[in-house]
Amino acid sequence: MTVSKYNQKFAVNLPLQYLQAIRLTHALMESDYTVSIPEEHQNKFSLLKNIFNLEYQVGIEEVAILDSVKFNHTNPSSQIGCLKRTLIFPHASFDYCRQLWSDKRNIQICFAGLVTEKRNKTLVKWFKNNFSNSRFKLPTQQRFVIRLVNKLFRQLSLPILPSTYKTELNGVVFWSSNRGRVFPVKAWDEEYFRLLANSQFVLCPSGDYIWTYRFFESIMCGAIPIIEEYCPAYEGFRYFTMNDSISSLKWSEEDINYNFQLCFERLTVSFEELNQEIGKVLSI
Description:
Strand content: 15-25%
Pfam family, one: RXYLT1_C
Radius of gyration: 20 Å
Distance between the termini: 22 Å
Largest sheet: 6 strands, mixed
Protein name: RXYLT1 C-terminal domain-containing protein
């Protein structure tokens, strides 16, 4: 009896603590093959399974490992065999974010994410340059009690607590959050994406490297990024910089539709290409 090639199962050798690996694995789950994940990483996909109706197998015993699926976080780049993109996101994430777009965006500018010491300085400087408010202090999720609790949790090898703090000043929403570092919400933060989809512009200070996921996530949600620094991954997109004054910011449907389409082309792999490449790799 001949078994269809699409009944084949495979697993990937990726560090699943990284969001880049989660998105790449999710994209692989859109193929006609069955993806297996290690049992200890089930929590990283629990929200994605509920939201996107993912199907996968738990357990990687006697399952082929696709070593040609890999990524580089520095540049960035993601790769499935010979298919290479800046990042590889699932089609479902674009479809989901597109339906979140608000007809009336109530927030002009927002920032949402972890407020590191470097980001704090960058954002405070940007705010003071635009509003001349010397008393402005960016809210941080690292309040004293939370720092102590999370320190204790780390010592006990327990997951840290997700925490957020939101404030609005001069029409700018600052949402200080560590949720992007805590599973399972790290895999898909619904509140974060809804905030972006209700904003015209999103402040995108650099991350651990110059590039940041926030740039692409903003575009997926129909907002225009305001970047701190240029990097090659941003080439061709329409955005503003943090040196531009607020009065020069112009939001348009033409720009967000252009960015969305370009982002989709740059960050996704067609289902046909995906199936073909996986088939090639499995047959090696």
